[in-house]
């Protein structure tokens, strides 16, 4: 969306994320006691997303040029994904990125090796300024992203920086795939690897590191960074297998000198003569068969802005430049960004008006190399318009935003920030494009040329890219309420299904905090950012419907909010104004006394008159419904404001507080006396969030969850004995970068935990059911097929069919490998492996299988595929037929 990729950074900065990154262990922190050292959980967890489908900006989509159906998508803060054709969904590839390297969830570029389709590369790093404390890196994989190796670069990369829709900055030489180029930001120039991404060196002969910055006067370093070298394109007609491609084109963020070429495999470079000036070249796409280099230009780097643009065609043989823009320059109010050619039909080219926010984005198509164009929509009699396409968002209905715009606007929109546009190189009917909220696509694209309507649908299942700011799991009603950046938040009544709509009426661009009344969970309050109108909203039906409250004077942002246990009182600490309290539903607010502005506020979950606050190392308590607060005498708490705390349900005055920073106290604290005193929990080196879930069987105390470093191990940890001992419930394959915004258990399901990520949506973990749900009759059939193999690994697809007469409500399939094969990554299911024995369970959304229906999953594994075909499969202990 428009603002919150930057807004998320600001919010995270307040939480300690970007002020040097996730803090390191304080030098004077006490050594962990043996009882508090977190061990791996003895019970296995399965991890899934609460389905939203999309929710963020997808600036890049890359198809492999030699293998059908192999495609990748990159996101600005939420990692990279691979398309899985059998399930029509995306598989996350960077969930293994850990806390200390959180910046590597921002992907500035991705490259798929057409000579060896098992190889894929990702250039990662989120910010080039000091918001991201780490340098960028190039990650390389020989198994399509199932596992990675990493080379850290001597400079930063900016997956969430201005200009991130330009590219691709990373490219593999199609003739010598050990050669890669990387365009760097911040004046670092062009870099090259000659050993398949293991080592990198600057191309010292490249003459221009770029000079364009969105706002040279931005003191934060965000908008003032030089956007640098922005794309690399090879002319595959100028090389032979085994030798580096001779001709390489490079785009630079320089309005006077935007395009360079080498004709000697990168030894020397020259500025292309006669090129247009006054614009930045967002994309350079080469049609080698016709000898045309197409370029999409904008007057800014995007992805939000851009007021003028042009499309050009460069004849590589003659050096002739032709302006092929579909719109006269005087009539543009946008830049061109998305750009693609049809590899099956040379001469067919498409482009997007990426920065046309109103009334809609525009997509242009030419079948004669840009001589003439048609548009995705046009005006008939203003403001009425005629579309070539039909939008079907039934799979993600929230994409309408519950809007009812006046013409010429429509809902759902065709898109915005449409920098990524690709025609499938093997299927002229399939096109995908990225927007600020989803991936759209069609499989009827050539209908365009017959002037026949074609349908555009979300093609985004599995790609979860929301930044999560707060979470709540009430004891009744919907199991999950979420506060999200960019798209407000959702009420999930079924975690496996996309909700029909985000929180609306009012719509917040971002919800910063929400709470429910512990005794009356139908009463819910949320606060957030909004362009105009009140920043607070209430619900009396568990978040299904909302109505706006009113703002105290001076409010400029959401801040934090708390509901009393009985739902009769609320305390709000908004941005721009001090802490306020109200009875009823916020028709009027009164200033709270004794607590500083900007305090984090929470409510006691048992005493309706008690509220709490925290600000700059001091804890505050109100016993009169938020009218007055008193500072607690408690000392030794974190000095800053990187703190999350919650009161325990069922017990008045019991509080758990997490937070801190590397230069002071950092950990987890516990109070049982309304915050008068706090005791630091031994062995918890660092803790950033805390939440409660259902007590373990036979226990009375709620389960604790925290995102923390315990015993030197970062992760999501669980305690069933009030913090005396801990187990880590996630694993190294499931880390999701930074998880410091929120965590909560589910009060109705023991073991379930909801984790807020900064760009991978809401992740939830459940205890695996070793038995799984199975067909009572055991009537099943398995088709097992190895689809790809490489030197030390392979990929397989498994299709499980219900051949019985009753539906399955969950399934669990088991087999044993013949040798030492180990599964590295599995999609559309959850797996465990002990030695050769493997068990795969459903992923929740695919658990119900009707008679005669099938469900598929796939995996990559190490080992020799010839030895890997299992001899038998069992569904819940009953053998399946194999074909």
UniProtKB/TrEMBL annotation:
Note the Pfam families from the entry.
Answer: CBM_2
Family the UniProt entry places it in: Belongs to the glycosyl hydrolase 74 family.
This protein's UniProt keywords: Carbohydrate metabolism, Glycosidase, Hydrolase, Polysaccharide degradation, Signal
Indicate what this protein is called per its UniProt record: Cellulose binding domain-containing protein
Cite the InterPro entries for this sequence: CBD2, CBM2/CBM3_carb-bd_dom_sf, CBM2_carb-bd_dom_sf, WD40/YVTN_repeat-like_dom_sf, Xyloglucanase_GH74
Organism placement in taxonomy: Bacteria, Bacillati, Actinomycetota, Actinomycetes, Kitasatosporales
The UniProt entry, under Gene3D superfamilies, shows: 2.60.40.290, YVTN repeat-like/Quinoprotein amine dehydrogenase
Q: Does the keyword Signal apply?
A: yes
Which PANTHER family does this one have?
A: OLIGOXYLOGLUCAN-REDUCING END-SPECIFIC XYLOGLUCANASE-RELATED (PTHR43739:SF2), XYLOGLUCANASE (EUROFUNG) (PTHR43739)
Q: Which residues cross the membrane?
A: none
Q: Which domain of life is it from?
A: Bacteria
Q: Where is the CBM2 domain?
A: 773-883
Q: Which residues form the signal peptide?
A: 1-26
